[in-house]
Amino acid sequence: MISFADTFIPLVGFAISAFLAFKFTFKGLFVGVALVWLSFFARYELLTYLDETYETGILAAVTLGFTGWVLGFIWCLPFTVIRLIINSKKGARINNDT
Known about the structure:
Layout: H1 2-23, H2 25-50, H3 57-97
Helix pairs in contact: 1-2, 1-3, 2-3
């Protein structure tokens, strides 16, 4: 159960945040970054609940701060940029047709 929580919760956070960043562009980017941070926060909370010997310490706090916000932004940004490129191509195609 511990290894399941350790890998599954961040993977779900990454998958849903990528979908949101692609689907809703800028709002999805910010919600996706927050979702990545929340998934890592939930991971640490669940690990401390399931394993009595697991101590988060300062490394977990630094990892949570860096991984949650910075890595979440780095992860969601390409999906937002891809969506912006697709939208600009559709806009150019529509303008050329008229």
